[in-house]
Amino acid sequence: MRFGRYAISIAALFSASAFAQSSVTLYGLMDTGVEYVSHANAAGDHIVRMPGITGEVPSRWGMRGVEDLGGALKAVFVLESGFNVRAGDSGQGGRLFGRQSFIGLEGPWGTLSFGRQYTMTYWAMADADILGPDIYGIGALDAFLPNGRSDNTVAYKGKFHGVTLGASYSFGRDSAGTGNSPGQGTCFGPVPGDVNQCREWSAMLKYDGTYFGIATAYDEQHGGTSAAANFFDGVPPFAIASGSDKDARLQANGYVNVMGVKIGGGWIGRRVETEGAGGSVRSNLFYLGAQYYVTPAFVVDGEGYRVIVQQHDTRATVASLRATYFLSKRTAVYGNVAYLWNSAKARYSVSAGGGGTTPAAGIGQLGAIVGVRHAF
C-alpha cells in the first residue's frame, strides 16, 4: 500500500510537470568601439581609447525564465550580468548579476517581483529619452539615470489599456556595498534600529498610445553610512549619512510620432536635503531629442541636454548626434559625436562611458566614437 501511494504521488508529479509549460532563454549583447575625447584632463590633453562601459548600450549577458502555472499565472525570473568588453571585467562594481536579479509572479493584474531590479525612474524614461544609455547621453549629466537600480527591492508593474502603473520599495538599496551609481558612495542596508537608513522607493504613472505617450515618476533615496550625493559637475560628492537625509528625483516626459519621426523630451528635478555640510541642493535637467529611420536599416537620431545646479552655480549643455546602420537583425555599426559646453565653474564630462575624462572648470569637450554591437 505504501509503495502504491508513492507511485500515485510520483505520477501526479509528472502529470503536473507535463501540464506546466516552462522555458529559459539565454541572451546577451556586446557593444564597444574606439573613442576620442578632447580636453580629457585639466591640462587640456586628449585621449583615444576603448571606453570601459558602453557605446550605444551597455554590454550584458543573462538568463530569463517563465513557467506557466495555469490560470493565467506565471512564474518569472531574470538574472542579468553587465560586463566591459574592453577588459572582460564585470560591471556594477564586480557583481555577478549586477544589472538585474529578481524572481516574481505575473498575471493579468501585472507583475510582482523581488530582488535587485530597476526603479521606476528608469522605466519612466525608456521611451522619451531618445538616445537612452548612450555614451554621450543623459548619463553624462546624471549617471544615476541610466543606472537606476536598487537591491532588496519589492516592485510592481501593471499595464491596463495603455496605462502603466509601477512602484518599488527597497529595504536597503546597496547591500553589496559596491555603489549603484558612480560617485554616489555606498549605502548598506537594511540597518537594525533605523527604519529609514538606505531605504528607497519610487512610483510611476505612464500612458502609451499609438502616436504619443506621457510619463511621470518619483524616486526617493534615504541616506546612510558611507552614502553620498554627487551632481557630477566637478563639485566633490558630499555625505548624506543620516536616514533622514534624502536624494529625490521627480520627472515628467513624453514623446510623439509624427510622419515617421519620433520626438521625445522631458524634465527631471532633483532635490538633495541633508543635515550635514552639503545642505540643500537642487538641480533641473531638460532633454529633447528626435529619431528618424532613413531606411529600415539606417537610423539617425540626436538629443540635446541642459542641466542647472543652482546652489553650485554650475550649468552644462550637451548636443549629441548618432547614426546607426543595421548589418543584420543582430549586428549594427554606429558613429556618435557630441559636444559639451561647461559654465565657468562646471567640470562635467561629455563621456559617460568609462570616466577619467574630467576637463578643467569652464572648458568644453568634444567626444566621438565609432563602434559595433551584436546581440546573441
UniProtKB/TrEMBL annotation:
The keyword Cytoplasm does not apply. It comes from the Bacteria. One of its GO terms (cellular component) is pore complex. It is found in: Cell outer membrane. Residues 1-20 form the signal peptide. Residues 8-343 form the Porin domain. It is a multi-pass membrane protein. GO terms for biological process: monoatomic ion transport. One of its GO terms (molecular function) is porin activity. InterPro entries: Gram-neg_bact_OMP (IPR050298), Gram_neg_porin_domain (IPR033900), Porin_dom_sf (IPR023614). Keywords: Cell outer membrane, Ion transport, Membrane, Porin, Signal, Transmembrane, Transmembrane beta strand, Transport. The keyword Chaperone does not apply. Homotrimer. This is Porin. It comes from Caballeronia pedi. The lineage of its organism: Bacteria, Pseudomonadati, Pseudomonadota, Betaproteobacteria, Burkholderiales.
